[in-house]
Amino acid sequence: MLNPPPVTIAEKLRLPAPRRWPAAAALLRRTQRLVRTHAFRLAGLYFAVFVLSVLGVLFFVYWTSADFVERQTETTLDAEITGLAEQYAQRGLSGLVQIVAARSAGDRGDGMLYLIANRDGRPLAGNISGWPEGTPTASGSLSFQVEVAGKGREESHPARGKLFAIPDGYRLLVGRDISDAAAFRGRVTTTLVWSGLLALALGLVGGTVMSRNMLRRVEEVNRTAERVIAGNLSDRVPRLGTADEFDQLAANLNSMLDQIERLMAGMREVTDNVAHDLKTPLARLRARLELALLAPGDRSAQAEAIRTAIGEADRMLATFNALLSIAEAEAGVRSDFAETLDLAELAGAVAELYEPVVEEKGFAMRREGVPGVLIRGDRHLLSQALANLLDNALKYGDSEIVVAVSRDGGHAVLEVRDRGPGIPEREREAVFDRFVRLEPSRSTPGNGLGLSLVRAVAHRHNATVRLADNRPGLKVRLEFPEFPALAE
Amino acid sequence: MKLLVIEDDRETASYLIKGLSESGYTVDHSGDGREGLFLATSGSYDAIVLDRMLPGMDGLALLGALRGAQIRTPALILSALGSVDDRVKGLRSGGDDYLVKPFAFSELLARIEALLRRGMQTPTETRLRVANLELDLLTRSVKRGDKLIELLPREFQLLEYLMRNAGHVVTRTMLLENVWDYHFDPQTNVIDVHVSRLRQKIDKQFERPLLHTVRGAGYCLRAGD
Residue A10 — pLDDT band, cuts 50, 70, 90? Predict the structure, then answer.
């Protein structure tokens, strides 16, 4: 016992579980398993893409709303300064003072602020009480606080301004109260942050639910597969009837399992039949040899017993070979043996082999058919199938056997007709099964495998095989897909 | 005639050696593929009988190596694998004949004899003769004595095969394979009837029969009884 006990994959993959925190360990395991899944990784990828697009959208909204207002303020200030500078150029300082005074009079509701100061900072005209502190004296943009008379009390509002330096130390300040814009910006920012957080939360939850949902359906398939592997061949993947890809996968897996189950059942039946049909002659063989051993003196009787035993063994071998041929035809491993065959030529060659025997038995063999009906197939298997049909026709038929080749609506048809007792309609399916022999023929030699091979060969060639009444007799009809060598 | 038997199953090997020795052959034996190849390349044998599955070296690989070394000794493959596919593989890898296990010893013997004769045949031969039976391959005519015998094309082929193997037993399976190129066993005695028809034509009106039935084995075309 040098070999260690086999370790299953499940054991290899088992994660170390802390003994003291079983619940935590279970959660950890579940999380690890979740992270390993394809569904989770997919969901994670989608989540990342989702986050990036949400951020992009939010930034765009911010840029087109909050920033836009500010840019507009700057533009207005520039225009105002340019206008006033022109006025100064035309009308001088006094004209400028007049205009500023006029514009400062009354609240126009646009929050515009004006101030002209002399070189000491003393206001000459404008709607600001005094020169804001820390305001530079050179031209340029600036931010400052402005005292505004609010509801009963002074309020300090943020403002943006531009300074225009007038020669002789005079200064013009044009500004705008941006408290509304700032408030708007604040609101936009808050809204965007919250909606962003909400979207991320929804994305995360949605992704998790989606991945878990997908995971669960894959798990169902996996569990079914495991049960089938464990031996429960009749288990099937549950279907939700949603007709989506998972449902289709389940349907396909189920029909695959159906097929496997059917094949297994067939196989079991064949094995049982083989066991039965080979054990019987083996038992006979053994009994014969035993009897021969009991009569040691009689050499000729012994020789006879041995000859019979060899005959018996040969028949068993023939049965074996027939079974192997059927298995070979069913397995379909020999696609490289397919060649283009003239059905009439193939049928003619086999019929020629049988013709003397047919005549010997007092029957007549008639060949009907047209040359040029082509099929793709395996010459050996097809010849053997036809030989089996002729064997049957010889065994059960009477007076005449017809081998006919014809063309019928895109099919190449091969028929073997005899004038025997035929096969009752209810038995026409059963006779194709292995070892099935109908009652009156049980006493004649044969192994009940002939038609099984015919059917296996037919299936191998995508052909159908049907038994019909030949009034009287049996008609076996094989329909092959015709090989389109000749243009219509 | 010296034969090499390469077969690892001891019981089958001793059965082959015994049977072949009793039939007048000198038999060497090897139970291993590599040793078998060594013997086949170094000794001079008239034919080789080898199992398909061998320890040391697979039978088909052995044949491939042998043919690769330009050694043309006729070889007969024995195998439990009997599908047409297996047979074709065996023949393609350099085998000259293929016999599926289990087989009747008479079948093996007949095939070995056929293999040995194949090497001796002169391919330019256009006329085959057995006693006063004569077959002309060029005019495709058959005469016995002075009498012209009318044969169907298949009967002609059948007779040609029998005449090429004159004096030796040919089995029903050999006829089915070589004359009809079929590799299955019909449940009916189709071959027997073909042979008896041929016999009607070549033996019926003559005093001395040439085509003999060998019980439990097959047929033999020969001048004597």
Answer: very low
Residues B145 and B99 in one domain: no
B116/B163 same-domain check: no
ipTM of the complex: 0.80
The total domain count for chain B is: 2
Please name the residue of chain B whose CA is at the shortest distance from the CA of residue A388.
B186
pLDDT in tens, B54-85: 888 889 999 999 998 888 899 999 988 877 77
pTM of the model: 0.62
Q: Which residues pair with A471 in a beta bridge?
A: none
User: Hey, are the CB atoms on A360 and B183 less than 8 Å from each other?
Assistant: no
Q: What is the pLDDT of residue A336?
A: 63
Enumerate the residues of chain B whose CB falls inside 8 A of the CB of residue A390: 188
Pairing of strands B97-100, B75-79: parallel
Tell me, yes or no, whether B149 and B213 share the same domain.
yes
Chain B residues inside the 8 Å CB shell of A328: 83-85
Which of B82, B186, B189 lies closest to A324 in CB terms? B82
pLDDT tens sequence across A372-406: 899 988 888 899 999 999 999 998 888 899 999 99
The answer to whether the CB atoms of A353 and B186 lie below 8 A apart is yes
10 Å CB burial of residue A464 (0-12, 13-18, 19+) is: middle
How far does B198 lie from chain A, in Å, by closest CA? 11
Q: In order of start, what are the domains of chain A with their CATH numbers?
A: 245-326 (1.10.287.130), 333-481 (3.30.565.10)
Read off the amino acid at residue A410: G
Range of the domain at B82: 2-120
Tell me whether residues B193 and A337 touch, CB distance under 8 A: no
Same domain, B104 and B38: yes
Residue of B85, B154, B182 with shortest CB distance to A334: B85
Radius of gyration for the alpha carbons in chain A, expressed in angstroms and rounded: 50
CB-count exposure of residue A456 (10 Å: 0-12, 13-18, 19+): buried
